[in-house]
Amino acid sequence: MSIPIALSDHVVIDEGEFMEVPAPKLQGPKRQHYLPRMYLKGFASDGGVAVFDRHTGELRRQTIENTAVERHIYTFEDAQGRRRYEIEEMLSQIESGLSDAIPRLETAKGFTGDDIDYLRSFIAFAEVRTPSALEDAKRVHAGFANTVGHAITASVERAMGALAGMYRGKGEHRSQEELRKEAEGLVRFVREGKYRIEVDDQAALMQCVRLWKPVINALLRKDMQMVTPMDPQSHYITCDSPVVLECVSDRDTVGFGSDDAIVLFPLTPRCLIVFSGSQGRIGTGSAQSAQVDRVNELLALSAERYVIGGDESMLGGLVGRLRLGKTKRNAKYVTGRIMTSDGAIGVVKRTFPHRAPPLSLDSEVDAE
């Protein structure tokens, strides 16, 4: 299977060696689905899907065309200021390959190695391509920038060194007295914390694209099961953040590559993909109705905003039991800072937002 990964006019293969790639992709769709239409069609009934908006508490039916779509969410600008559509094109190729493979994967019959590759690629992107993933990337990027700021300003002398290096790079000179005065102000500014770091959309998008391959590599070594409900009337739902990461131990954080990590992804209403272990085996499984219900609860709790399914009545009952109306999910990624004797270390953790009670939006309104 060949998937294009270049986002510029050339890809460096080796030092001094370049490989030509296709001409820049300068045209593409303005409306881009973060849950692809080919994926949503599997969960549709009567030509549309039931969508629950946990922020407003509204349950409605709507068309696939108007579900999980944003304007230019994957479009980026190059150095010449041109809109580029390579990321959207890459996603479309993966989606096309998986669309052809889904019938074989759903029945666990006749699937190929390429089918599995497309599936892993699709799931890895499902983790990093959503609006909530882009917002997570902004928070993580800002968190690390904040850590760098604290490391640089751990002392006035350290800040002076950083400022001196910056001015040398600009070809400008500052006296020691000038550097000390500016460094003291910088240290004071950072320690007061009265600032906010803004990360632009394109930087967040590129960070998410860079994370795609590590997630695939983590899934490659894990065992994979295609799980089918035993009851013909049992069906999986999906949501706007459909990759659920769990753990067989009682740890409060885990990575995709951890041996005790469990990754759940609803491929269709009748097929759940489960990654676990670390031996790279592929097999099948079945789920009782209670197990399907539990997975649906995890998916609903994991939703950033939208819970999606084909059966409006079933979806309404699920979100009602979970009391998801006018709530939001806990953060999927959290950042932290560990101060050391010579600076600071940034920490980012992937958490389990479905384990914590939903956060009430009503209380936020009351607080304002």
Polypeptide structure, described:
There is one protein chain. The protein is of the alpha+beta class and 368 residues long. It has two domains: 26-129 and 222-325, no CATH class; 139-198 and 332-367, no CATH class. The protein is built from ten helices and 19 strands. It has a five-stranded mixed β-sheet with strand order 11-12-13-9-14. A hairpin with a 2-residue loop joins strand 1 (10-14) and strand 2 (17-20). The protein is elongated. The model is unreliable at 1-19 (pLDDT under 50). This is DUF4238 domain-containing protein. It holds the Pfam family DUF4238.
Task: Give descriptors for this structure.
10 helices; alpha+beta; DUF4238; 368 residues; 40% helix; DUF4238 domain-containing protein; four-stranded antiparallel sheet; 24% strand
Could you provide a short overview of the structure?
By secondary structure, the protein is an alpha+beta fold. The protein is built from ten helices and 19 strands.
